[in-house]
Known about the structure:
alpha+beta
Amino acid sequence: MPSLGYYFTRKNFTSVLTLLLTLCGSFMIYKGLGLVLNTGDPFVVVLSESMEPAFARGDIIFLANPKHRPYATGDILVYSVPGTTTPIVHRVLETHSQYKPGFTHVGTNGLNQKMLTKGDNNPVDDTDLYHGLEWLEREHIVGRVVGFLPYVGYFTIIMNYFQNDYPNLKYALLGGMGLYTLINGEQ
């Protein structure tokens, strides 16, 4: 049986360091994209069929949130209202804008904009999803959809499906992938 020192060779240390740098680099790229695109989440996974045929469940959508551009009817937005944790992807049905004297909101030049949204595949608008709000406001918007990759995010949906029955499954899979990388690293 090999000694404990065998497992902590320079090769294994290099593999661990490479894995950590990859994880940190991925996180920095994600947050850097968020800063450049002015959104907390530069991409999200579509979790329901409410936007079919535009987006299917499992599509990854890319977001941007330009500071100086008001939202328009027909834009597809991702929003999150207080009391919810899951962002919602729906199209703007109606907007109402007014300029208020002395009102300053970063990037909108004093524009106070309210929006009503609806999923393309839903029969009614989203007022029931707003948790007591009558309209969405700019602070509820995560971003405007600027592109998508079809079905690439389905792995996330599968992992969320098993989360209730097997809450530690995703950590076990990530740990298994890390262990595989360490054992079968550079030869």
